[in-house]
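Wed. Picked up where I left off yesterday with AAA family ATPase. The coffee machine is broken again, so keeping this brief.
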Amino acid sequence: MDRFVILSGCSGGGKSTLLEALKRRGHSTVEEPGRRIVIEELEGDGSALPWVDAPAFARRAIAMSLADREKAKATSGTVFFDRGLIDAASAIEHLTGEQVLASLGQSHRYNSHVFLTPPWPEIYVGDHERRHDFSAAVAEYERLRTTYPALGYEVHILPKIGVGERVDFVHSVLDLT
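Structure written out below (tokens, as returned):
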């Protein structure tokens, strides 16, 4: 769907901060499935955590991403997603070799412009939900940096600038006012 825009890239690169700034500027936003799953799993006794059962975690992220897309159809205007279906499908393929990316990636399209946060060690911070180290975040970024163009998306690497300037950059690429 052309009005669904993906923010992806390196963990700890400022996606959530950018998403919040876009929300403050009046855009609809969808929070990262992975972080929501981790919070739910930690509150219960679930095991679909990336450091316990990564494939189960990625499968939940696919299901949540599909549900997020359905829910977002009811909103108007541009909707920004902090990660989403392509990231989760890429993770499944990386972890298990299961070929899901091509079918999911073609049947559930996003806007052709995808924004990636690059590795930014100066702002990277682990926390209760983000337990992987910076090198794992960089490896994921490199995988996604090749995945999106392979599916026909135009990747825009977000510059390492302030969040307001990043919002302006996104608006400029998408020709939003």
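Quick read: The radius of gyration is 15 Å.
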